[in-house]
Amino acid sequence: MHPYLKPLSELFAVNSNEEIARYMKQYMKGQYEYFGIKSPERRELKKEFLHRYGMPEISELGTITRECWELPQREYQYFIMEVLEKMAKKADMDRINLYEHILVNKSWWDTVDFISAVLVGIHFQKYPQQIIPYTKKWMKSGNIWLQRSSLLFQLKYKKKTDLGLLTKYIQQLQGSKEFFINKAIGWILREYSKTDPVWVVSYVRDFQLAPLSRREALKWMERKNVYI
After folding, report:
1. Nearest-angstrom CA–CA distance, 217 and 210
2. Is this prediction's pTM over 0.70?
3. Which residue in 23, 34, 84, 92 is a FRET match for 110, CA 20 to 30 A apart?
């Protein structure tokens, strides 16, 4: 284990809870092991760890990230994602390749959504020239998690959302039977409805979306009684 991670491993082990770990594993369809540390407590442990040991050296970040991704307990992946967030605004252009690596390994919504909306989202704002080359490649990959990321990286963009690119990718994914694709289409439209509800209603009316995507797209407006 990398020297930086050894004290983290000890901290997680001391605070582990087998009963909670079993529940977490069951919630994630048995795909991952857990220490059984709930998010609020885990973030406090992260804060304690970073106060004592600091952030990873930038030269070691890729190695540490990949090792966290290979370790069995999911808390390691959550930890390093949040560390990457703290370092995201100072990342160089090559960081996108590390993000791509963790998008396609141990992929599930709990990591992919954070990587997409937070890490990739920040990165593409800093390096917009990478948006088309990478998302075009991701869309063509056939990997549903890369495709989901091509939609969700704009989740927090609000008025800066590139609607042309978003609608292009939604249309390319039309007819998908994948739950996580149709859910993502609805989610990004729902989030943008908080910025421009008129546009979202018009888009939903004009284009045939999967029922799940349509429900998700209009959910916020229906809950807030926003009528167009």
Report:
1. 11
2. yes
3. 92
Side chain identity, residue 11: L
Is the pLDDT score of 7 beyond 70? yes
Is residue 197 within 8 A of residue 226, CB to CB? The reply is yes
**Contact call for residues 174 and 138 (beta carbons, < 8 A):** no
Distance (Å, whole) CA 70 – CA 55: 20
Task: Enter the tokens of residue 175.
Answer: 């007819």
Determine phi and psi for 95, rounding to 5 degrees. -60, -30
- The residue among 3, 152, 23, 149 whose CA lies nearest residue 64 is 3
CB 53 within 8 A of CB 7: yes
Phi, psi values for residue 33, rounded to 5°: -90, 160
| Closest by Cα among 158, 164, 106 to 135 | 164
Determine the Cα–Cα distance for residues 208 and 200; give it in Å rounded to an integer: 13
Please report, for residues 23, 102, 162, 207, the alpha-carbon distance to residue 30 in angstroms, rounded to integers and kept in the order given.
9, 19, 37, 37
Cβ neighbours for 225, distance < 8 A, ≥ 6 positions apart:
none
For the stretch 93-137, pLDDT in tens is 999 999 999 999 999 999 999 999 999 999 999 999 999 999 999
Cα–Cα–Cα angle for 39, 41, 47, rounded to 5 degrees: 100
- CB count in 10 Å sphere of residue 60: 13
